[in-house]
Design a protein that fits this description.
The chain is an alpha/beta fold and about 525 residues long. The strands form two sheets. Strands 1-2-3-6-7-8-9 form a seven-stranded mixed β-sheet, with helices on both faces. Strand 7, helix 14 and strand 8 form a beta-alpha-beta unit. Helix 10 crosses helix 11 and helix 11 packs across helix 13. The termini are far apart.
Length: about 525
């Protein structure tokens, strides 16, 4: 190795002298190292004691009992569930395998994740970008039943689904801000604060129950009279009026948004689960006539003392809007949650059978129960109504009325020898069937929610939007770049959010209590459908 020629002349002699005196010496602890005869013997006693001390410290470290955590640790992850299981034998051999879950928790709360959590807990909403739908808007509106868009979930479709869910949230917030309604005079206009300012509300919608409660109930609890009123504000019709948004979507969109169960009489109607035939059915000779749940149909068709029925209001307003915007490219999107999802199907069904020309019609439903029998599902399909059902696997409301089984189990049974029995049960009068295409999410896939979240959380609309925003595909984890803020979810479902994140939220010095006063009331009451 010719090093000398690259060194300055005044350093060359010094380098050569040091190189001549350099010797490769092995470690004195290595038994293979040969010691020269002149070397002094090692102090065996001190070396042995030092080795014992190191081994003792290592043994204490490995056998040390786990300290009780101040925060609830993230759920234990089995070795088979780890995304990368290489080297697990080494971890077990060293006794470190039991420390892996805590290491994962530490990783999730690393500085970069803390920054992400701080962004998700901020008050300012952040959304996925709205890309131009252009000439493909019919595909995103369900012309091909969203084929090839759901698993993996198309990013533009994800944004549209969340956007329509926020229309339903606006309905909840508007009702909660002013739930009471006079039974002696027509209602005043209802203010709706839309998150999407490209739309303008054109009509308030009301639902009326055909059953009532005794008068003494109002006398006992006069402050809760709105819980027993027969007619209640349930949603609205809005139309897009922003030119840039119309150009982005490729058409002018008309939205019908419906909230879920909120009053006692609406709960009572949900319990009337026996099926009845849709009035005005043209062909009574059909072998499998369309039938729907009695309570849902009652809320849809019953007129109030000072308000028309939900059916009348929707038909009149849609006919008026289609006449105003005649000649333009239009679409109608009906969206609802829980009871609102059930009523959305009845609205879409009636619109599809109107005498006037109706634009392309689609339904985006969140956590909706079954509404009718197989005849009703076939009728919806024949009338070219496109339905996208967003379903949480842990949501019990989506399994009623009818047989209390999930759609996944039902599909598996139909592919076996027992499938013939289900085909026979489909013709029974009490048999109910879901409608449309399914987008299935799961509470257990969220890294922020407890896997054993309660029934109310699994049915909550904000939880649905949180799961949709983080959904990539059925075989993929929750997406790391999810945009939706967790603040509303932490406020309304704090008992179902992992305590690790609740505690970290307070450690980030976010004024949650102050923000709680500014947040609207809980948008969802659990529906007993």
């Amino acid at each position: 190795m010719l090093v000398g020629y690259t060194l300055p002349a005044h350093n060359l002699n010094l380098f050569q002298a040091r190189r001549a005196s350099f010797r490769c010496r092995g470690s004195p602890l290595n038994p293979l190292t040969k010691r020269p005869a002149s070397a002094k013997p090692l102090q065996r006693i001190a070396s042995t004691e030092l080795t014992r001390l190191h081994l003792s410290n290592l043994e204490k470290l490995l056998q040390k009992q786990e300290q009780p955590p101040l925060l609830e640790p993230i759920e234990k992850i089995s070795r088979n569930e780890l995304p990368e299981n290489k080297g697990s034998g080494v971890l077990e051999g060293l006794g470190l395998a039991r420390l892996w879950p805590e290491m994962k928790a530490t990783e999730e709360m690393s500085p970069r994740h803390m920054k992400t959590l701080q962004r998700l807990l901020s008050k300012s909403q952040e959304y996925s970008p709205r890309n131009s739908l252009g000439g493909r808007w019919r595909e995103y509106h369900g012309s091909n039943d969203w084929s090839g868009m759901l698993d993996p979930l198309d990013e533009n479709l994800r944004r549209e689904v969340v956007r329509y869910g926020e229309f339903v949230q606006a309905a909840y917030q508007s009702f909660n801000s002013d739930p009471a309604m006079s039974a002696e005079e027509p209602p005043l206009p209802h203010h709706v604060a839309l998150s999407d300012r490209a739309y303008r509300v054109t009509k308030s919608l009301y639902a009326t129950s055909s059953v009532g409660l005794p008068d003494w109930v109002d006398e006992v609890a006069p402050d809760l009279a709105w819980m027993t009123q027969r007619s209640s504000w349930i949603g609205y019709v809005a139309v897009c009026e922003d030119r840039r948004e119309i150009a982005r979507m490729g058409r002018r969109d008309i939205v019908i948004a419906l909230r879920g169960t909120a009053t006692c009489l609406e709960w009572a109607e949900n319990m009337r689960a026996f099926p009845v035939q849709i009035p005005g059915e043209k062909d009574d000779s059909v072998q499998d006539p369309a039938m729907v749940e009695c309570g849902f149909l009652s809320l849809y068709k019953t007129r109030g003392a000072h308000v028309p029925s939900l059916a009348e209001s929707v038909i009149q307003e849609i006919q008026r809007l289609t006449e105003i915007y005649k000649g333009e490219t239009l679409s109608i999107t009906v969206t609802g949650h829980s009871l609102g999802a059930a009523l959305a199907l009845l609205v879409a069904d009636e619109l599809s059978t109107c005498d006037f020309e109706v634009p392309p019609l689609a339904v985006f439903s969140f956590g909706g129960p079954r509404v009718g029998n197989k005849g009703f599902a076939d009728r919806i399909k024949q009338n070219n109504v496109k339905v996208l059902r967003i379903v949480n696997s842990q949501d019990l409301i989506t399994r009623v009325p009818g047989m209390f089984v999930s759609e996944e189990l039902e599909r598996k049974v139909r592919n076996t020898k027992m499938g013939g029995i289900l085909n026979v049960l489909d013709k029974m009068p009490w048999s109910y069937s879901h409608v449309g295409t399914e987008l299935r999410v799961d509470t257990k896939h969220s890294p922020y929610l407890k896997p054993n979240a309660d029934v109310a959380c699994c049915h909550d609309l904000e939880a649905y939007l949180h799961l949709v925003d983080g959904f990539l595909a059925s075989n993929c984890p929750f997406r790391a770049n999810a945009k939706r803020s967790l603040l509303k979810l932490v406020h309304e479902q704090s008992s179902n959010v992992k305590k690790l994140y609740i505690s970290k939220a307070f450690s980030l010095k976010l004024s949650l209590e102050r923000d709680r006063d500014r947040m609207p009331m809980s948008p969802c009451l659990p529906s007993p459908s």
